[in-house]
Write a structure and sequence with these properties.
single chain, 259 residues, alpha/beta, Rossmann fold, two-stranded antiparallel ribbon, 10 helices, Phosphatase, Phosphatase_SCO2771
Length: 259
């Protein structure tokens, strides 16, 4: 497997703005942190929290877990993701996935709410997991619901065993936890690899879960701080899919170290 070195991956993350100075503006990050502190369901990703997690608490945790600017007085303009935190979390994710596959007979659900970006990463992990004997579950296929007034009915669709939502015409972005809840109601996996509400709902249900999240999506990082999410990897979750190639190779190489 032609995986980059840590130094080369770090340079690539910064160059493609997967980490470093990212495209997500500071204003959007802070707005979403306030929304999470106010327990807006759209930003909770299906998780509940034991601690109060006010705005300052969320910002402090995001600075620690993601590398956003810690100063609450920085209210607009550029914000950041620390590429070393991205790689550290990516290695931790690889270790978790590798350990699960090494135990044998793993029953895994893989899902994404960001098919325009992260799908390419999930598809590669799915292929690797199958090659090492994992069973990729596909429960609740075609389960459908109407989501928050968007108009079209959304349904679960699997592409090469990766769960997503479609609206009858296209694969769609979602934060919603309801699709993962439908999956878990039909069949409970041993392990989940996901993002957004797919990851949050699984972690809330007590399934061991690793996931990806952007700097404006604090829920999974707060979930990780409270022990409901095993690993949350900080990154821009919607750059050009080909930019995730070196990151994916690094992750797969880390997984196979355990196999």
């Amino acid at each position: 497997m032609n995986a980059p070195s840590r130094t080369d991956l770090r340079d690539h993350l910064i160059r493609t703005r997967i980490a470093g100075d990212v495209a997500t503006p500071r204003e959007n990050n802070l707005d979403n942190y306030r929304s999470l502190a106010g327990r807006d369901p759209h930003y909770m990703f299906g998780l509940t929290f034991a601690a109060e997690w006010g705005f300052r608490d969320v910002l402090e945790q995001m600075a620690k877990s993601v590398g956003v600017v810690a100063d609450p007085g920085h209210r607009e303009g550029q914000d950041t993701i620390d590429p070393d935190l991205t790689i550290d979390a990516l290695e931790a994710m690889g270790d978790r996935v590798g350990e699960v596959l090494a135990r044998g007979n793993a029953r895994i659900v893989i899902a994404t709410g960001h098919p325009t970006g992260l799908l390419t990463v999930h598809l590669a992990v799915a292929r690797l997991a199958r090659s090492y004997g994992a069973t990729l579950l596909t429960p609740a296929e075609r389960w459908s619901y109407s989501s928050h007034g968007y108009g079209r009915v959304r349904r679960i669709r699997y592409l090469d065993d990766v769960a997503m939502l479609d609206d009858g015409a296209a694969l769609v972005h979602t934060h919603d936890p309801d699709p993962m809840r439908a999956i878990l109601a039909e069949e409970r996996p041993d392990f989940v690899i996901a993002d957004h509400g797919w990851a949050g709902a699984a972690g809330e249900a007590g399934v061991e879960t690793v996931g990806f999240a952007d700097s404006n999506d604090p829920a999974l990082f707060i979930g990780a701080a409270e022990g409901k999410i095993a690993v949350a990897v900080p990154l821009d979750d919607n750059v050009l899919p080909r930019y995730y190639g070196p990151l994916t190779d690094y992750l797969l190489a880390r997984i196979t170290r355990h196999l």
